Amino acid sequence: MNKTLLLFAVALLFTFPVSKVHAQIDHLNVGEVVVSDQSIYSQKRAGKRAFEQVVTKMSGESTSNENITVRRAATNFEQYLISSSYRQEKEALIYRAEFNQDKIIDLLRSEGLRVWGKRRPSSLLWIAIEDDTTKDKTLLTQTTESDLKTLLNTAAFQRGIEVVFPLGDLSDSMNVSTNDVWGLYSSSIYNHSIRYGTNYVIGAKIGLGFDDYSASEKFILNYFVTDGQSIETAQVAGDSLPVLLGEFINRYADELGLKYAVSSDDTNETYDIVLKVSNVNSLLDYRTVLSILSSLTITKSVELVAQQNDVSEFHITTNVPALRLRSILKLENTIYEGEPASDDEQSLTYIWRGK
User: Fold this and answer.
1) Cα torsion at 27, 290, 257, 146 (round to 10°)?
2) Which of 13, 18, 29, 340 has a C-alpha 20 to 30 A away from that of 39?
3) Looking at the structure, do residues 229 and 278 belong to the same domain, yes or no?
4) How far apart (Å, rounded) are the C-alpha atoms in residues 315 and 306?
């Protein structure tokens, strides 16, 4: 490559933002529960638990099943059930139930509970674990064989979020060490995680420690979450690793739900927003952008009102104000926010990246 082309290639890296890869969760209406047998009694109990799992996934709130109407619906889960089956996974027998998603959305909205669509943030998890005997520390990567990864993946499935592990390849090993993660060096970890394109980066460490709240020794998980602009830190304690990891994922999923799920307060208001999308050069581009905007949980209606050169101007009626719409659209890796065309808060500008 000659010098001119090299400089141009480098310039491109700084001109175009890194594509953030959101997660499209297609199993929100599916619950999976480990059972001891296939008896009618076990199936009834598992069906109720699977229904409660789906309610939690679709609402983004771990407390949704405390609602009295939801509790009655869980007891009569068959009226929402589409299909059920069993599968054997190693030594575990798993009951799988698929429920009617539209009926559960109606249930949540009728009770004033949140509704969270299938487009959700993706998260990269760097996690270091200290052996309580040897005090050796290890990282979990995509190539690591560990029961802890299974526990984390199961908990993430049950909450409807995507958590991915680093590759653990040469680039990772050269740039992020186990000590970096154990020390929770957020800036270094985030800067070397950009290549993954996730919406969030999590750094976490697990070890035995003294829990001030219970005044006893427990497994302690300290972690940070960052999107490159802000950072949040927290700590979770548990009597066992399964309990600890489940609580960690539940807490994180609840935090995401508060940011992205649509609450009953949102549905009481409507907002008219103008969204201009440039680089729309074909009928296929237009149809794809329109489909994306129409499929958002918060969209009541969307229509094309103008087309000038490669700029499509859409009029969107939503249940959320422009600021919330912007945060939701950040999960779309096919469009990215451009410079505002005016000071009008109800007018947003985006650039179509294409498939």
Assistant:
1) 40
2) 29
3) no
4) 9
Average pLDDT of the segment spanning 172-196: 95
Verify that 242 and 161 share a domain, yes or no. yes
Q: Residue 341: which CATH number?
A: 3.30.70
**65-124, pLDDT tens digit by residue?**
999 999 999 999 999 999 999 999 888 999 999 999 999 999 998 998 999 988 899 999
**Which residues make Cβ contacts (< 8 Å) with residue 161, sequence separation at least 6?**
23, 25, 120, 121, 123, 249, 252, 253, 256
Buried b (16+ CB within 10 A) or exposed e, 328-345: bbbbbbebbeeeeeeeee
341 Cβ partners below 8 Å, 6+ apart?
276, 347, 349
My answer on whether 80 and 36 are in the same domain is yes
**Structural domain that includes position 71:** 29-110
Gap between the Cα atoms of 30 and 224, Å rounded: 30
Distance between CA 110 and CA 353 in Å, rounded?
37
Question: Is residue 8, in this structure, part of any structural domain at all?
Answer: no
Same domain, 165 and 254: yes
